[in-house]
Design brief:
Mean pLDDT: 89
Number of domains: 1
Radius of gyration: 20 Å
Number of helices: 9
Number of strands: 17
Strand order of the largest sheet: 1-17-16-13-12-11-7-8-4-3-6
Distance between the termini: 14 Å
Strand content: 15-25%
Oligomer: single chain
Order of helices and strands: EHHEEEHEEEHEEEHEHEHEEEHEHE
Length: 385
């Protein structure tokens, strides 16, 4: 990736123009129905979805007391389907009925009412092979909490695998068993980070199997792999990148790296989406509004990091803005802010991944962009080899 330096970023008008279709949000108050719809993914591809339950039989599940329990990892995969593809709509929250005891009837009924444009078990577009992007959710979440962002990437020509980490998140397993977030099974945070990094590497192995002879046969370019995570999920993917050279690009949603990354360093370019307020990250020094448990990308980090680093701050974002917040917004202003945030997330993430994994230069990383008060990009280029 061509190194660039600290500057303001391209105007949002350009970001919006880059979308192949405008964001679409359907809601009962606008459509005359009681349904709510997720944003339609903006890229040139329709989006298919498949749900798979994988088990890593080489690892016991430390989150239970049963010695025979193996590590289960459900995944939600979004992928490019041919434009105009049709079929049964995919659910927004798979196995949501398992959460009735936790979220109540009103919450589950609402989530059941959310409509998606994703097509269940749609054919994969023949335009592949496509780059792969794997994603790890944060504490108490699940991959479907980020359906807008992940399906948007798929619509731009990426195979996207949302990893569900039992006991890191509230995850519904087969048989409607819901895992509660818990880390007491680990001796320390480093052990937990290492365990969830093993989840990521296991998923990469399983996708490679699917690519050889399976649901995604020959659809995935395993030589072009990116990974991302929100909050507690980013230490999993960045930790995996230390030992798994398949990961060529990393995206952090307001999250720091584990100690192993600070010790070993990475050659991998990193894009950090840092919350404008209520953030858990900062560069070089801890700002006044940074969460006390937050991570600082300080001088010690950059002494060992060997890849380009991009820090993007979008006005109006917080630590949790990558969630599908607009579905739950209480005001039209909050809803529109969330939609704008997702438009910007997608534009920068696609530009970053296209540049790192495909070698396609982006106007968002131009040398002399116009100023925009809504988005600030600071870049620290990789040190000379």
């Amino acid at each position: 990736m061509k190194p660039i330096f600290s500057r303001a970023a391209t105007p949002l008008a350009v970001l919006l123009a880059m979308q192949t279709a405008p964001p679409v949000l359907a809601a009962g108050e606008d459509s005359g129905t009681d349904s709510v719809a997720l944003l339609v993914p903006p890229g040139p591809y329709a989006v298919g979805q498949v749900l798979l339950d994988w088990a890593d039989t080489t690892r016991a599940e430390p989150g239970t007391d049963a010695p025979d329990d193996m590590r289960q990892i459900p995944v939600q995969i979004w992928y490019p389907a041919p434009a105009g593809a049709t079929g049964d709509p995919a659910p927004y929250r798979p196995r949501v009925e398992a959460f009735r005891a936790t979220w109540g009837d009103e919450g589950v009924d609402f989530l059941n009412s959310v409509e998606t444009s994703w097509i269940m078990d749609a054919p994969v577009s023949p335009d592949g092979p496509f780059p792969l992007f794997v994603f790890s959710h944060g504490w108490s979440a699940r991959s479907s909490s980020h359906g807008t962002f992940l399906s948007s990437l798929a619509s731009h020509g990426y195979i996207v695998v949302g990893i569900n980490h039992p006991y890191l998140g509230m995850v519904a397993l087969p048989g409607d068993v819901v895992t509660e977030p818990n880390d007491e099974q680990f001796a320390d945070q480093a052990s937990a980070n290492r365990f969830y990094a093993e989840d990521v590497m296991f998923v990469l192995d399983k996708v490679a199997e699917l690519n050889r002879d399976g649901r995604l046969a020959a659809a995935v370019d395993m030589g072009r792999v990116g990974a991302g995570g929100h909050s507690s999920g980013f230490p999993a993917v960045s930790g995996a990148a230390v030992t798994d050279e398949r990961i060529k690009a990393l995206i952090s949603f307001d999250a720091g790296v584990p100690k192993i990354v600070r010790r070993e360093g990475l050659d991998v370019p990193i894009l950090l989406f840092r919350g404008a307020t209520d953030s858990y990250t900062d560069l070089f020094f801890r700002g006044e509004d940074i969460h006390p448990k937050g991570t600082i990308y300080d001088v010690d980090f950059f002494r060992v990091h060997r890849g380009d680093f991009f820090d993007v701050v979008i006005l109006g974002t917080t630590h949790n803005s990558v969630y599908d917040e607009y579905l739950f917004a209480e005001t039209s202003e909050a809803r529109q802010q969330s939609i704008l945030n997702h438009t910007t997330f997608t534009a920068y993430a696609v530009a970053f991944l296209d540049q790192v994994l495909k070698g396609q230069a982006s106007p968002l990383f131009a040398e002399t962009p116009d100023d925009d008060p809504n988005v600030t990009l600071r870049a620290i280029p990789a040190p000379p080899h």
